[in-house]
Amino acid sequence: MKCRRCKAPAVIDIRRHNAAFCLDCFLHHCREQVRKAIHEYKMFSPEDRVLVAVSGGKDSLALWDLLVDLDYEVDGLYLGLGIGEYSTESGVHTRQFAAERGLKLHEVDLPSDHGFDIPGAAQVTRRSPCGACGLSKRHLFNSTALEHGYDVVATGHNLDDEAAVLLGNVLRWDTGYLGRQHPVLPATPGFVRKVKPLVRLGERETAAYCVLRGIDYQVEECPMAEGNRHLGYKEVLNALEDRSPGSKAAFLFGFIERGHERFAGDAEHERDELGACTVCGAPTPGDVCAFCRLRSQVGALQIEVR
Amino acid sequence: MKCRRCKAPAVIDIRRHNAAFCLDCFLHHCREQVRKAIHEYKMFSPEDRVLVAVSGGKDSLALWDLLVDLDYEVDGLYLGLGIGEYSTESGVHTRQFAAERGLKLHEVDLPSDHGFDIPGAAQVTRRSPCGACGLSKRHLFNSTALEHGYDVVATGHNLDDEAAVLLGNVLRWDTGYLGRQHPVLPATPGFVRKVKPLVRLGERETAAYCVLRGIDYQVEECPMAEGNRHLGYKEVLNALEDRSPGSKAAFLFGFIERGHERFAGDAEHERDELGACTVCGAPTPGDVCAFCRLRSQVGALQIEVR
Questions:
Q1: In 3D, which of A136, A97, A105, A88 has the Cα closest to residue A298?
Q2: Residues B49, B50, B56: CA angle, nearest 5 degrees
Q3: To the nearest whole number, what is the mean pLDDT of chain A?
Q4: Best to test chain B binding among A178, A228, A234, A262 (most B CBs inside 10 Å)
């Protein structure tokens, strides 16, 4: 197996591209895919201040590394979720990555800054921990970016993540979610721009990138996500991809090119109906935003929520 | 396990409805689901002459039986595909069903009427036999219905079939196919109306219906379809359905309610560009329709096709 670019012995093959690469050309490939995504979807320019949401896992550390490498002005944000050993180690990996490279890292800690953790929230709400985790992340990534004047929040969602989310949205024909699923969510009143520069790289590629770049990441998957639907959708798509390489990318990019626009109106409609949370001021369809309602439910905020 | 309707001991449970039925109430359930589909999608009225495409398998024989039972005026059409023993047996089951009930059955035989069979077509075109089979069926169902003055062609596509086709169309975001995927395809110049009255019944239900009604159907699956994509999509959807009963129906009916209309324009656009086949007069985007081109390729028709 030879490198497609330089004909040296290859270290990795990527079936959907029908290509193999040596170490240097693979790193080049990853940078090019990210560069292409940023330009194709007009994610941000060198003048923009970018905040990367970093979990300490392969995707977000690869993303931070790649964006720094591409000369963007980019700081990190680590959110402590209070998920025992898993969170402790995630924090260690993230801080170590930032310190070794002299990069600026913001930290928000759910337990100490907001009075609850994800396992506790799941217990009190009697719902999936992934729900509480997702809404906390969305809220705090956005509010931290606004607070510190960043133009855009970048997350490490890769091709596999996005295809799995799309499959879930399509299986339910959730038209609002379909309208919002895009590599770029433009800024709207109260929301900074959100971008996903890894959308052209699979998770096998981001893992290989970290290994080959010597990035020490948190290998464990979140213990609370086990058996969730999202992972089931990933399995299904992996089975289809095995049978027919490239089908995952065709699914996601086919949607972006020929599907998304047809649902965009549904998402706009939802956005138009947002007011300001009476507690924190964040945009919300009700009086109190989902994050403040969660804080109230877990007893970390003393408000009357209907 | 007791029957939901009459509390007698149940013979079958249907997880997506969270229900079980005794024999009589299960047959009632099947009739109601078909009645509901016909009314909901305005498939046809008692005045319409309906032609059912019958393969001798569980779905099409159940459909014919159900439509007769619901007092519609409905004749059958059997298409001989020339797939060895499989086709021979399919024909026997179909003729026996019609004869026992005194129903009118039209027959078209690919080898004797059109000079080729599906295995031969697959060999000559070096493409999937399912492609040649599908296009022959679409062509001959329509031309036979037109020839004998039927208003509508009904096919035995069930919930599992339609969900699998939808998954394939969505994975490729094939917008023309998505625009055409609906339980009713209205008549357009050169095309009779096409309807799928079994769309609310799963294939486990149509099989049980035949068994409980004493209908002797062809149990073997087509030997040429083995390993095709459609069956892969069915497996994937079955895995999702096992995990979360009702997800297959939510996927299909969510599309019909909230997705289909957004793609309907793409299908109309394709229809607007059709002319008449210079050989047989059927609607086609080119000079010669796909069926006549296939006949020419297999040497059954002497024409110059570019």
A1: A136
A2: 150
A3: 95
A4: A262
